[in-house]
Specification:
Strand order of the largest sheet: 4-3-5-7-6
Helix content: 55-70%
Order of helices and strands: EEHHHHHHHHHHHHHHHHHHHHEHEEHEEH
Strand content: 5-15%
Radius of gyration: 25 Å
Shape: globular
Structural class: alpha/beta
Distance between the termini: 53 Å
Largest sheet: 5 strands, mixed
Number of helices: 23
Number of strands: 7
C-alpha cells in the first residue's frame, strides 16, 4: 500500500500496512454461537406469541414507510415470513435465533480487531452468549433483537476500520446503518456517538475518505422515506419517546446503570466495566478510546432523555472485547481473575436460561422469579384464552346485535391476538387506538353495540361513559395460570348508545406507549 508522493522529495511515501490480526477462533466461537442458536430454536414454540409479535403480524399487512413506534423493516420481515410459512410461531422466531447467534460471532470478531487472541475472543463471545438481554431478545421476534445485531456490527466495522484504515469499511458502515435506521431510529444516535468519539480521540482521517461520504449518503437515503412519513404524520415518534420516558421503565434515570449490570449479567458486567475503564487507562487500547467516548456520550444523552439502559447495547461487545484483551495481555486485576473462568460463565449461562427462557411448565411460571426479572415472558401467556373470553362476550349478544357489533381493545397485543385467534371463534375484526394500530382503521358506524376490553373496573365505567350511554361489565380476563400480566383481570364491557359517530370518537381513542 502506498501513499501519494511526498511534497518534499517527490518520492512516494510508504504507508505501513496494519499488523495482521490474530487468527480467528472459528471453531470454538461458532460452537458457542451454535449452542445458543440451537437452544433458542428448541424453545421457540414454548408458551405463545408475545404482544409485539402479534402486532408485527398485523402491521405486515399494512405496510408503510413508517409507523408511530418504529420504522418499516420488522413489519416487512413479519409479512415475508408469514407469507412463506403461514402463521408459524417457530418460523417467526427463527430469524431472531439466527440474529443472536450471529451476534456472538460479531462479538468475537470485535475482540480480534482489537488485537485479541483466542482467549480474548472466547471471553467476548461467551459474554455475549450468556448476556441476559441478548438471550431474552433472541427468543422473540422483536426490534431489539435485530437492532442489537446491527448496532454491534456497526461498532465492529468502526473498530476494524480504525485498525486497518480500509475505507471500504466506511461504505459497509453506511450500508449496515441504512438497514439499522429502518429497524430503530436509535441507530442514528450510535452513529453520531461513534463519529464524536473519533473526533475527540482520533483517528480523524475518516473525514477525508471519499467512502465516508458514500456511506453517509446511503444511510441518509435509506432514512428519508421514514422521516418523510414521520413529518407527514406530525412526528409521532417524538411523542413515543416522551411516552417511553414517562413510563420510567427499568427504574428510570436512577436505574440506567444498575439495570445495565442486570441486563448484561451480574458477573459478565464487570468485564465491560473493566473494558470501559481500560480504554481510558491502557496505552494498548488508546487506538480504540473512541468506543469509551461513544459510550459515555450515549450514557449522558440517555440519562438526560430518560432512555432505556439497553439503548447502549450496541457498544457492549466492544467494551467486553476491550476488557478481554486487557486480561489476555496483562492478566485480570488482582482478585478478579476468577470472574473470567469457565465455571463463572457456565453458572451465568444457567442462570440466564432460568431467568429469561421458557423452560418452566407454563402453569408453574407464576411461582418462579422469571416474570419479575423478564416481564416479556408473562406477555407470551394466555392469548388463545383471551380471545375465547372475548368470544364468549360476543356470543352473549342477541343475534340482531351480534351482526352489528364491533370490538375495541386496549392495546395492539390484544387486537393482534384477536386477529390471530378470533376468526376461528367467529369474531369480527378488532380495533385499537394503541400506537400503529390506530392507523390501521376505525370501526364502521353500524349502530350496534361495542365490546370493549379494559380499562380497569373502577375507572372504566366513568371513562367509557364519555363515549357510550350504557356501559356494563360482562366478564373479566383470566389467563388461567394466575400470572400477572397486562391483561390479567381486565374487565370486558358491552357498551351501547354510542354518543357520536366513529370519525369523531376515533381521534380521542388514540394512545401512544
Amino acid at each position: 500500500m502506498s501513499a501519494p508522493a511526498s511534497a518534499a522529495s517527490g518520492r512516494p511515501v510508504e504507508i505501513p500496512r496494519p499488523a495482521p490480526a490474530a487468527a480467528f477462533a472459528w471453531r470454538p466461537v461458532l460452537l458457542i454461537a451454535g449452542v445458543l442458536g440451537v437452544l433458542l430454536l428448541a424453545l421457540s414454540a414454548r408458551y405463545g406469541y408475545h404482544r409485539d409479535e402479534l402486532y408485527f403480524r398485523v402491521a405486515g399487512r399494512h405496510l408503510d414507510w413508517g409507523y408511530p413506534d418504529q420504522p418499516p423493516v420488522m413489519p416487512l420481515l413479519a409479512r415475508a415470513i408469514t407469507a412463506a410459512f403461514g402463521d408459524s410461531l417457530v418460523a417467526l422466531r427463527v430469524p431472531s435465533a439466527l440474529f443472536t447467534a450471529a451476534g456472538v460471532v460479531v462479538a468475537g470478531l470485535t475482540a480480534r480487531e482489537m488485537d485479541g487472541g483466542r482467549r480474548a475472543q472466547l471471553l467476548t463471545a461467551g459474554a455475549y452468549a450468556v448476556c441476559p438481554f441478548a438471550v431474552a431478545a433472541g427468543h422473540l421476534f422483536s426490534t431489539a433483537t435485530l437492532d442489537l445485531l446491527l448496532s454491534t456490527t456497526i461498532v465492529w466495522l468502526a473498530v476494524r476500520w480504525v485498525r486497518t484504515r480500509d475505507q471500504r469499511l466506511l461504505l459497509a458502515v453506511g450500508a449496515v446503518a441504512a438497514l439499522a435506521l429502518n429497524v430503530k431510529y436509535l441507530a442514528g444516535f450510535l452513529l453520531v456517538a461513534l463519529v464524536a468519539g473519533l473526533l475527540v480521540s482520533g483517528p480523524r482521517e475518516f473525514l477525508r475518505r471519499p467512502m465516508l461520504a458514500a456511506g453517509a449518503l446511503i444511510a441518509a437515503a435509506a432514512a428519508v422515506p421514514g422521516l418523510l412519513w414521520q413529518a407527514d404524520h406530525g412526528w409521532p415518534q417524538l411523542d413515543m419517546a416522551d411516552a417511553i420516558a414517562g413510563n420510567a421503565d427499568f427504574g428510570g434515570r436512577p436505574g440506567f446503570i444498575p439495570f445495565q449490570i442486570l441486563l448484561t449479567g451480574i458477573f459478565p458486567s464487570w468485564l465491560w466495566i473493566y473494558g470501559l475503564w481500560r480504554t481510558y487507562r491502557s496505552d494498548d487500547l488508546r487506538t480504540f478510546r473512541f468506543v469509551g467516548h461513544a459510550y459515555v456520550l450515549l450514557t449522558v444523552l440517555f440519562l438526560i432523555t430518560a432512555g432505556k439502559p439497553y439503548y447502549v447495547a450496541g457498544l457492549w461487545a466492544a467494551l467486553w472485547a476491550a476488557g478481554a484483551v486487557e486480561i489476555e495481555r496483562n492478566g485480570a486485576p488482582r482478585g478478579f481473575g476468577w470472574l473470567a473462568s469457565v465455571p463463572v460463565y457456565a453458572i451465568t449461562a444457567v442462570t440466564t436460561v432460568l431467568l429469561t427462557l421458557p423452560v418452566y411448565p407454563v402453569k408453574q411460571l407464576a411461582a418462579t422469579p422469571q416474570p419479575a426479572v423478564n416481564g416479556d415472558s408473562a406477555e407470551t401467556v394466555g392469548w388463545p384464552r383471551f380471545a375465547a373470553q372475548v368470544a364468549r362476550a360476543y356470543a352473549s349478544l342477541p343475534p340482531d346485535e351480534r351482526s352489528k357489533a364491533t370490538i375495541v381493545v386496549s392495546n395492539y397485543g390484544e387486537a393482534g391476538a384477536l386477529d390471530r385467534y378470533g376468526p376461528d371463534l367467529g369474531l369480527p375484526r378488532a380495533y385499537s387506538g394503541h400506537n400503529g394500530y390506530w392507523y390501521f382503521g376505525r370501526p364502521a358506524d353500524t349502530g350496534g353495540p361495542t365490546i370493549v376490553v379494559g380499562p380497569e373496573t373502577l375507572a372504566g365505567a366513568s371513562y367509557l361513559g364519555q363515549f357510550w350511554s350504557d356501559v356494563r361489565p360482562v366478564g373479566e380476563i383470566d389467563n388461567g395460570v394466575d400470572l400477572d400480566n397486562q391483561e390479567q383481570g381486565k374487565p370486558i364491557w358491552i357498551c351501547r348508545g354510542q354518543r357520536a359517530p366513529w370519525p369523531e370518537l376515533w381521534p380521542r381513542l388514540k394512545t401512544l406507549s
